[in-house]
Amino acid sequence: MQTILRTRDLTKRYGDKIVVDNLSIEIREGEVFGLLGPNGAGKSTTMNMICGIVNPTLGEVEFMGKDFKKNRKELLKELGYIPQELAIHGNLKAWENVELFTSLYGIKGAQLKRAVDDSLEYVGLLDRRGDYAKTFSGGMKRRLNIACAIGHEPRLLIFDEPTVGIDPQSRNFILEKIKQSNQNGATVIYTSHYMEEVEAICTRIAIMDNGKIIATGTSEELKKMVVSDPETITLEEVFLTLTGKKLRDV
Amino acid sequence: MIRYLIKNNFKLMSRSFYNVLLLIIMPLVLIAVLSSAFESLLAKYDGDQQIKAGYSAEGDVSREIIDALVSVAEENSMSFTEYPLSDPANLIRENELSAYIVFGNDTYTVYRNSDEKEAAKAVEYMVGTFYDTAAAGALGVQEDASAVTVRQADYIEPVDSKDYYGIVEVIYFGWCAIVCGAALFMNEKKYRIRKKFIVSGLSESGMYFAKLVPIAMVAILGSIISAAASHILFKVNWGDKPLLSLVILTLSVTAASAFGLMIHNLFGENVVVTIIVVFVIVWFNGYFGGAFETYMFQEGVSLELHRLWPIYHTNRALVEISTTGQSLYTGSALIYNAALAAGCSLVAVISGMIRRKVKA
Predict the structure, then answer these.
(1) Which of B1, B57, B152, B233 is such that its CA lies 20 to 30 A from the CA of A128?
(2) Contact with chain A for residue B201, Cβ under 8 A
């Protein structure tokens, strides 16, 4: 598989504090890459640097073979970011929210209308397109949040804890849709605290702590790092073994 | 493609009931209250009552200019009588004058009768306006007076309190335009929508204009509805040049929106601080611009201080257009507001770019 995203020695310092420390990762095209880590591990900062929200102190990001910094505007069109926060307007209808965010990528007219309907249908909200987002349940808002980020059909989707605080049905629906997006050709980066989710959908997982990647591999490979028989251990136990049980208050 | 962003931001703002309340209903309430409270003050100015004033000339004052001034005063229900230079207090008392003016070479001094403050201020205002006009050369009155040509003009047609406050309150609340964006700002901040804008590659100027345009549009629409309602409900006279008045009002609201957004950007997009800072500055703007106390009768405020504030130019332009169909302040109102809108936009975009860089 070809590399779609590569970071080289990515570092972010805030004063004396090193949040991300010489991070070098490769995401291959077509994979679902899971990024796990305790609070304060540097996951969000890494995501923010990949998305261009935060500039790295050192290092570089290469996306689709091009330097991200130099080709930012062009490359951002191929990137879909689903933030942990519900980045939607309650006083806008579902279709208006999707239209607003999809249009930012230069899509207009009939193509935009089609993209809006396709996105809403994809997340199962087409029949509620005319309803205000504020009338939606938590799960529906999460789905709408996703619809707002996929209308421009990006090649790389970044999900930052997209299932926080929703019911099992909605969570299952979202995970199914992430798998479907991946089957349709999108590469996915997925961060979450829910180990079973990561295990269920990710083809490769990286565990991050103190700004560094401490382990990378498939779920099975990670388990084998801790015990010889992967059947005897859960991913959560692997995570706790590698990152420790000390509370991480940030 | 900020067209859709502007469209949806406009929808967001226009769906907020509070905007409608502030921009449409509040001016109407203030028009009713203030026009009633100041009815007697401005009634003195309605032309039914003749104001008596005296004057003396010292030095080489141009007679043509004085004659022109006396003529204009007569057209504004003021009778000016010349007296030999004397003690102002005695002259005022003995001749029951509202005011007494001593014209010098380059200056004039107005002595006011403390028992007839309003009438005296009307005289002062008329003389001040006359000299402004003369200095501007708009009427062809030249300072050296070697070849004086004078065309008459009505400087201060009677404006009643209802018309005055009807106009200035709509302008004043137009300056509160930033409130229209409050719900949008809070939502954008709460849900970190700015982050998504950055990820989409939207530029700082794109973000800025996607807010400025809808805020100004909602505020202009609210101001127009309020102006129309003031005309229908209170018979406020906006004059016979609605297009010109509309252009000035539109520019004023646009400047106000740009100013509010600049403050919003300068204060780190903190909505509460923005509203407080904007409202304090707008209050001073209104205070010195004549939104509460009429600019012509305001005590202790020099013309220079009045002119510092953009709302003064807008108020004077629209009030004078409503009464005389023209105003010397039309140009300054247009230029001041346009420059303010452009300047504030520039500062807002640059400060946004700096903040983005610092935060990244």
Answers:
(1) B1
(2) yes
